[in-house]
Automatic annotation (TrEMBL):
The keyword Cell membrane applies. Residues 222-406 form the Major facilitator superfamily (MFS) profile domain. This is MFS transporter. The lineage of its organism: Bacteria, Bacillati, Bacillota, Bacilli, Lactobacillales. GO terms for molecular function: transmembrane transporter activity. It is a multi-pass membrane protein. GO terms for cellular component: plasma membrane. It comes from the Bacteria. SUPFAM superfamilies: MFS general substrate transporter. The chain crosses the membrane at residues 16-35, 47-66, 78-98, 104-129, 141-160, 166-183, 219-239, 259-277, 289-310, 377-396. It is found in: Cell membrane.
Length: 406
């Protein structure tokens, strides 16, 4: 028997989207910071094994992103969201009791798949929120996401010594709350008139319904360049999640300083993102993304020369500013330059390129670190990112006479 909820679909309120993002980010941030530590320190597996687990998890998440895009465009987004929330909840809840090797890795991969699907679906739902431009929605989501990172890492810092199961109990409660929000608030309509203005009013194309129905997601040169930039950005970002902890230990810093970095990163984003986004919203997407990418890349160049904690903090702050300029703008930019009829696949493309970087990052950094090429590692990601950013700028310059990229 159908409920009134199913009979009366409505528009998605931004506050529920943001609350869902907060819960998802908090729950996730209670898992990823302790993955390597738990696998090596508690399960007594090698660092190579931990890297393989992370790599496969990223690959599974990539596949989940692809599935999420297809489900949003060609199936029932609401049902897909509910099913995905149940998958994540079941995997995390199982980790309370089944957290020995190798079942731990299998459950983590199941959770990774669900999180990949969820990330794409949430981003796709964000393009349907009425009343604000897409870039504002994504900026707000980005701030809330980082509040979740702060809360999650705080919980890990204070509770990990009391046992992994306690962290999973709290994470399970959080994902249960997320599931309830999805069930009660995400059954929304997708009428064309309700879709967020992903294109500025003076840039909207007037297209007939038959033409709209024929639109498909196509990889344009600009999208390819954006995808490559996402790939190298998140490959580089994985260095902070994988090699920076042992690198800082090599420099004589205690492990707690690594946790402090992420706390500072999250607080910086919470405090400054509104100011950064207000500036970014006054400029075309590509200005913010390219500037942010250059700043992000420069942080890895300066990382070659640092050897104290506060120097690393300053470099991480530089990276954070670049991240704030780039990351929340990209999904909104992609939403703007692709037809709304393929919103799910477009956001799936974004998530897949992010996940691809996360797949390659641990492998690449691991090989470089095994050979003792730490500075070469930092220099290489700096050079590649500058080159790709330059190619994106060149691609855009060739389309300067068109309005679709701004």
């Amino acid at each position: 028997m159908q409920t009134n909820l199913a009979d009366k679909p409505r528009q998605l309120n931004e506050k529920w989207l943001l609350l869902g993002t907060l819960l998802s980010s908090t729950g996730n941030s209670m898992i990823w910071p302790v993955m390597t530590l738990y696998i090596t320190g508690v399960l007594n597996q090698s660092f190579t094994t931990a890297g393989v687990v992370l790599m496969i998890g990223a690959m599974v998440s990539l596949f989940g992103s692809f599935v999420g895009g297809k489900l949003f465009d060609h199936w029932r987004p609401y049902v897909a969201m509910v099913m995905t929330s149940i998958i994540i909840l079941a995997a995390v809840a199982s980790l309370i009791f089944f957290n020995k090797w190798p079942l731990f890795a299998i459950l983590i991969w199941i959770a990774n798949f669900g999180m990949g699907v969820e990330q794409t679906l949430v981003n796709s739902f964000a393009t349907t929120v009425p009343g604000q431009k897409t870039r504002v929605i994504f900026n707000n989501m980005y701030i809330v996401l980082n509040i979740g990172v702060v809360l999650g890492t705080l919980a890990v810092g204070y509770l990990f010594d009391y046992g992994f199961s306690l962290l999973m109990i709290i994470s399970t409660a959080i994902y249960f709350g997320l599931m309830l929000i999805i069930i009660t608030k995400f059954n929304v309509s997708f009428d064309a008139d309700d879709i967020t203005d992903v294109v500025a009013n003076n840039e909207k194309e007037q297209v007939s319904k038959p033409e709209m129905a024929r639109k498909k997601f196509k990889l344009t040169p600009v999208l390819i360049a954006i995808g490559a930039l996402l790939f190298i950005t998140y490959l580089s970002y994985m260095l902070w999640e994988t090699v920076m902890a042992p690198h800082m230990k090599t420099l004589g810093m205690p492990t707690r300083n690594y946790a402090d970095l992420w706390m500072i990163n999250g607080i910086t984003i919470i405090v400054l993102q509104k100011f950064v986004s207000n500036w970014a919203n006054k400029h075309p997407y590509h200005v913010s993304v390219i500037l942010g990418s250059v700043i992000f890349a420069l942080s890895f160049f300066f990382l070659i020369f640092v050897n104290t904690f506060w120097q690393i903090v300053l470099v991480f702050e530089l990276l954070t500013i670049g991240e704030m300029l780039q990351s929340p703008q990209v999904p909104a930019w992609v939403a703007q330059i692709t037809p709304k009829e393929v919103a799910g696949q477009a956001q799936g493309f974004v998530s897949m390129m992010i996940s691809s970087g996360r797949v390659v990052g641990p492998i690449y950094s691991g090989v470089m670190m095994d050979h003792g090429w730490t500075n070469t590692l930092f220099l290489s990601v700096f050079i590649v990112m500058i080159i790709i950013t330059g190619l994106l700028a060149l691609t855009l310059s060739r389309r300067v006479d068109k309005n679709s990229v701004t």
